[in-house]
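Troubleshooting log. The previous structure file for this entry was overwritten by mistake, so regenerating from the original sequence record. Sequence copied from the archived sheet and checked twice against the printout by T.R.
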Amino acid sequence: MATLSVTPTQDVFISSAFSTTNWDTLTHVVGSVGPKIVDHTRTLMDFDITAITAGSTIDAVTCNLEIIGVSAGSPFTWACRRERRSDGAEAQATWDIYKTANNWGTAGASNTTTDVDTTFAFTFTGPSAAGSFDIPDSAGFRAFVQDALDNFSGIVRMLLKHNTEPGTDDQGVGFYDSEDGTAGNRPSLNITYTAPGGAPRRVFVM
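Regenerated output below.
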Protein backbone atom coordinates (compact mmCIF):
# COMPACT_ATOMS: atom_id res chain seq x y z
CA MET A 1 0.00 0.00 0.00
CA ALA A 2 1.01 3.62 -0.48
CA THR A 3 0.10 6.76 1.42
CA LEU A 4 -0.54 10.34 0.42
CA SER A 5 -0.96 13.36 2.70
CA VAL A 6 -1.99 16.70 1.19
CA THR A 7 -3.16 20.08 2.46
CA PRO A 8 -5.95 22.05 0.75
CA THR A 9 -5.33 23.89 -2.49
CA GLN A 10 -8.05 26.25 -1.30
CA ASP A 11 -10.38 26.50 1.69
CA VAL A 12 -12.86 29.08 2.92
CA PHE A 13 -16.00 29.26 5.02
CA ILE A 14 -19.23 30.97 4.04
CA SER A 15 -21.79 32.49 6.41
CA SER A 16 -25.51 33.10 5.91
CA ALA A 17 -25.47 36.00 8.39
CA PHE A 18 -22.77 37.77 6.35
CA SER A 19 -23.91 36.65 2.93
CA THR A 20 -21.74 39.04 0.90
CA THR A 21 -18.57 38.75 2.99
CA ASN A 22 -15.56 36.71 1.89
CA TRP A 23 -13.69 35.28 4.90
CA ASP A 24 -10.54 34.06 3.17
CA THR A 25 -8.34 36.58 4.99
CA LEU A 26 -9.01 34.94 8.37
CA THR A 27 -6.53 32.39 9.72
CA HIS A 28 -9.29 29.92 10.55
CA VAL A 29 -12.43 28.53 9.01
CA VAL A 30 -15.68 27.51 10.66
CA GLY A 31 -17.03 24.12 9.78
CA SER A 32 -20.47 23.95 11.32
CA VAL A 33 -23.50 26.08 12.15
CA GLY A 34 -23.74 29.30 14.12
CA PRO A 35 -26.27 30.37 16.78
CA LYS A 36 -29.58 28.58 16.23
CA ILE A 37 -31.33 29.95 13.13
CA VAL A 38 -29.36 33.20 13.03
CA ASP A 39 -26.36 31.94 11.09
CA HIS A 40 -25.34 28.86 9.13
CA THR A 41 -21.67 28.45 8.34
CA ARG A 42 -20.25 25.95 5.88
CA THR A 43 -16.71 25.15 4.85
CA LEU A 44 -15.40 24.50 1.34
CA MET A 45 -12.09 22.62 0.99
CA ASP A 46 -10.35 21.33 -2.16
CA PHE A 47 -7.59 18.72 -2.13
CA ASP A 48 -5.46 17.65 -5.10
CA ILE A 49 -4.80 13.89 -5.05
CA THR A 50 -3.55 13.55 -8.62
CA ALA A 51 -0.30 12.09 -7.23
CA ILE A 52 -2.31 8.88 -6.82
CA THR A 53 -2.14 6.73 -9.94
CA ALA A 54 -5.39 6.50 -11.85
CA GLY A 55 -7.11 3.19 -11.23
CA SER A 56 -5.84 2.92 -7.66
CA THR A 57 -8.08 1.68 -4.86
CA ILE A 58 -8.64 3.89 -1.83
CA ASP A 59 -8.11 1.68 1.24
CA ALA A 60 -8.42 4.24 4.04
CA VAL A 61 -8.84 8.00 4.40
CA THR A 62 -8.98 10.54 7.22
CA CYS A 63 -8.94 14.34 7.30
CA ASN A 64 -7.08 15.97 10.16
CA LEU A 65 -8.28 19.32 11.51
CA GLU A 66 -6.70 21.37 14.29
CA ILE A 67 -9.69 22.55 16.29
CA ILE A 68 -9.50 26.06 17.78
CA GLY A 69 -12.61 25.73 19.89
CA VAL A 70 -16.11 24.31 20.14
CA SER A 71 -19.30 25.83 21.48
CA ALA A 72 -22.18 24.55 23.56
CA GLY A 73 -24.00 21.58 22.10
CA SER A 74 -20.86 19.86 20.78
CA PRO A 75 -20.26 17.25 19.59
CA PHE A 76 -22.89 17.11 16.87
CA THR A 77 -23.27 15.42 13.52
CA TRP A 78 -21.52 16.94 10.49
CA ALA A 79 -22.27 16.20 6.84
CA CYS A 80 -19.84 16.18 3.92
CA ARG A 81 -20.99 16.68 0.35
CA ARG A 82 -19.09 17.00 -2.92
CA GLU A 83 -18.99 20.58 -4.15
CA ARG A 84 -19.71 20.71 -7.90
CA ARG A 85 -18.20 24.10 -8.78
CA SER A 86 -14.76 23.34 -10.23
CA ASP A 87 -14.04 27.04 -10.81
CA GLY A 88 -14.85 28.38 -7.34
CA ALA A 89 -12.43 30.94 -5.88
CA GLU A 90 -11.59 31.00 -2.17
CA ALA A 91 -10.67 34.70 -2.25
CA GLN A 92 -14.08 35.59 -3.71
CA ALA A 93 -16.61 33.02 -2.48
CA THR A 94 -19.41 34.10 -0.14
CA TRP A 95 -22.77 32.68 0.89
CA ASP A 96 -24.24 34.28 -2.26
CA ILE A 97 -21.53 33.65 -4.88
CA TYR A 98 -18.87 31.04 -5.65
CA LYS A 99 -16.76 33.62 -7.46
CA THR A 100 -17.17 37.25 -8.47
CA ALA A 101 -20.38 37.84 -10.49
CA ASN A 102 -21.34 34.15 -10.35
CA ASN A 103 -24.13 33.16 -7.96
CA TRP A 104 -24.54 29.77 -6.38
CA GLY A 105 -27.55 27.97 -7.83
CA THR A 106 -29.06 28.40 -4.37
CA ALA A 107 -27.37 30.58 -1.75
CA GLY A 108 -24.97 28.75 0.54
CA ALA A 109 -23.97 26.20 -2.11
CA SER A 110 -27.30 24.48 -1.48
CA ASN A 111 -28.52 23.49 -4.94
CA THR A 112 -28.13 19.73 -5.43
CA THR A 113 -28.13 20.08 -9.22
CA THR A 114 -25.58 22.86 -9.69
CA ASP A 115 -23.74 23.37 -6.37
CA VAL A 116 -23.36 20.07 -4.52
CA ASP A 117 -23.70 16.37 -5.21
CA THR A 118 -25.12 14.16 -2.47
CA THR A 119 -24.46 10.82 -4.21
CA PHE A 120 -21.49 9.99 -1.96
CA ALA A 121 -22.39 12.27 0.92
CA PHE A 122 -21.54 10.95 4.38
CA THR A 123 -21.89 12.02 8.00
CA PHE A 124 -19.67 11.82 11.07
CA THR A 125 -19.60 12.96 14.68
CA GLY A 126 -17.65 16.19 15.07
CA PRO A 127 -15.17 17.17 17.79
CA SER A 128 -16.08 17.76 21.41
CA ALA A 129 -13.00 19.79 22.39
CA ALA A 130 -10.13 21.84 21.00
CA GLY A 131 -7.08 20.01 19.65
CA SER A 132 -6.32 17.56 16.88
CA PHE A 133 -9.37 15.90 15.33
CA ASP A 134 -9.67 13.39 12.50
CA ILE A 135 -12.70 13.09 10.28
CA PRO A 136 -12.64 9.32 10.65
CA ASP A 137 -12.11 6.67 8.04
CA SER A 138 -15.39 5.13 6.90
CA ALA A 139 -16.82 3.33 3.90
CA GLY A 140 -18.62 6.54 2.99
CA PHE A 141 -15.48 8.67 3.15
CA ARG A 142 -13.53 6.13 1.08
CA ALA A 143 -16.27 6.08 -1.57
CA PHE A 144 -16.29 9.90 -1.61
CA VAL A 145 -12.53 10.07 -2.30
CA GLN A 146 -12.60 7.13 -4.74
CA ASP A 147 -15.25 8.97 -6.75
CA ALA A 148 -13.06 12.09 -6.89
CA LEU A 149 -10.09 10.04 -8.09
CA ASP A 150 -12.07 8.13 -10.71
CA ASN A 151 -14.49 10.75 -11.99
CA PHE A 152 -13.32 14.25 -11.05
CA SER A 153 -9.70 14.41 -12.20
CA GLY A 154 -8.34 13.64 -8.75
CA ILE A 155 -9.71 16.78 -7.09
CA VAL A 156 -11.54 16.19 -3.80
CA ARG A 157 -14.00 19.05 -3.26
CA MET A 158 -15.56 18.92 0.20
CA LEU A 159 -18.42 20.96 1.61
CA LEU A 160 -18.72 20.54 5.38
CA LYS A 161 -21.90 21.57 7.18
CA HIS A 162 -24.05 20.86 10.20
CA ASN A 163 -26.13 17.81 9.32
CA THR A 164 -29.31 19.44 10.65
CA GLU A 165 -29.92 23.11 9.92
CA PRO A 166 -31.00 25.00 11.90
CA GLY A 167 -29.36 23.56 14.98
CA THR A 168 -31.05 23.50 18.33
CA ASP A 169 -28.09 24.94 20.26
CA ASP A 170 -25.43 27.56 19.69
CA GLN A 171 -23.38 24.92 17.92
CA GLY A 172 -20.16 25.88 16.22
CA VAL A 173 -16.63 24.65 15.64
CA GLY A 174 -13.60 26.62 14.48
CA PHE A 175 -10.45 25.12 12.97
CA TYR A 176 -7.28 26.45 11.36
CA ASP A 177 -7.07 26.71 7.58
CA SER A 178 -4.32 26.10 5.03
CA GLU A 179 -2.96 29.65 5.32
CA ASP A 180 -2.07 29.25 9.01
CA GLY A 181 1.58 30.04 9.74
CA THR A 182 2.10 26.77 11.61
CA ALA A 183 2.23 23.87 9.15
CA GLY A 184 0.99 21.39 11.74
CA ASN A 185 -2.23 23.36 12.20
CA ARG A 186 -3.28 23.11 8.57
CA PRO A 187 -5.93 20.61 7.45
CA SER A 188 -4.57 17.46 5.85
CA LEU A 189 -6.22 14.71 3.83
CA ASN A 190 -4.47 11.43 4.60
CA ILE A 191 -4.99 8.52 2.23
CA THR A 192 -3.83 4.92 2.09
CA TYR A 193 -4.27 3.31 -1.31
CA THR A 194 -3.26 0.37 -3.47
CA ALA A 195 -1.87 1.14 -6.91
CA PRO A 196 -3.27 -0.89 -9.82
CA GLY A 197 -1.57 -4.04 -11.03
CA GLY A 198 1.36 -4.11 -8.66
CA ALA A 199 2.51 -5.36 -5.31
CA PRO A 200 1.64 -3.17 -2.30
CA ARG A 201 4.18 -0.45 -1.67
CA ARG A 202 4.68 2.49 0.67
CA VAL A 203 5.59 6.04 -0.32
CA PHE A 204 5.19 9.38 1.43
CA VAL A 205 4.21 12.56 -0.42
CA MET A 206 3.81 15.86 1.44
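The first helix runs from residue 139 to 151. Archived copy saved in two places this time.
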